[in-house]
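Worked Example 4.2. Consider the chain below.
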Amino acid sequence: MTGSLVALPALAAASWVSLGATTKAGHPRHPLYVAGTTPLEPFDVAAYAVAQERENPRLTGDFRGGLLAKLE
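Applying the procedure from the previous section yields the following structure tokens:
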């Protein structure tokens, strides 16, 4: 699903952020589980989408032949 978001021109050019550092697995943290004072940090959503496609190939219907092929 993330790949389809990144493919939209308006969102591809956006500056993405996450609340604090990502998890060990590279996922952005959920706002309910982060302190309100946590600063925003840059988030590379294109790299995240490619990593998700590589780690979860069966869940990547939106990515097939798309984002991963374009970014490599």
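The beta strands are 17-19, 40-42. The chain has a mean pLDDT of 77. Compare this with Example 4.1 before moving on.
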